[in-house]
Design a protein that fits this description.
CATH class of the domain at 61-137: Alpha Beta
Radius of gyration: 33 Å
Distance between the termini: 100 Å
CATH topology of the domain at 61-137: Nucleotidyltransferase, domain 5
Largest sheet: 5 strands, mixed
Strand content: 15-25%
Structural class: alpha/beta
Strand order of the largest sheet: 3-2-1-4-5
Order of helices and strands: HHEEEHEHE
């Protein structure tokens, strides 16, 4: 009868996933990343150098963005306060020639370095949507 009792104890299939090889592979990968991470140098952004333009534009429309994100539009002797959303409409009202293609009056944006980059991009986007083609940024030339 011993044969009868051993018949019930045959090899059974294991329905569980063996996690040990998976954990071993993950630990090896973790060690590899920990060793190689300090060796990788962070990438630096190469910004273009700013030089002087051959000639400055005559009578540009100036947009000044202050630290508090208040916008001031200057053209010749006129100064008009504005905001980021309405700056394009105010410029077109003040000087419609900013839309006239190659002979358009240039628009120069001067922004305080402490404000968010997003504010300057919003102003440029609003100008582009209004059809203003000649937009530039005012910078200080460094040595």
């Amino acid at each position: 009868m011993p044969a009868v009792s051993s018949r019930g104890r045959g090899r059974r299939t294991i329905s569980e996933i063996n996690m040990v090889p998976f954990i071993d592979v993950m630990l090896v990968l973790l060690i590899i990343f920990m060793v190689t991470a300090p060796l990788i140098t962070p990438s630096m952004i190469a910004l273009p150098k700013v030089g002087k333009a051959p000639s400055q534009p005559q009578n540009p429309v100036q947009i000044q963005i202050g630290k508090d994100e208040k916008v001031l539009i200057k053209f010749k002797t006129d100064s008009v306060p504005s905001n980021v959303r309405n700056v394009a409409a105010d410029i077109v009202k003040m000087e419609p020639a900013v839309r006239s293609g190659a002979q358009a009056v240039p628009v120069v944006i001067s922004a305080d370095k402490a404000i968010k980059y997003e504010t300057v991009v919003q102003v440029m986007d609003n100008l582009q949507k209004a059809g203003v083609s000649r937009v530039g940024l005012s910078v200080q030339t460094g040595k």
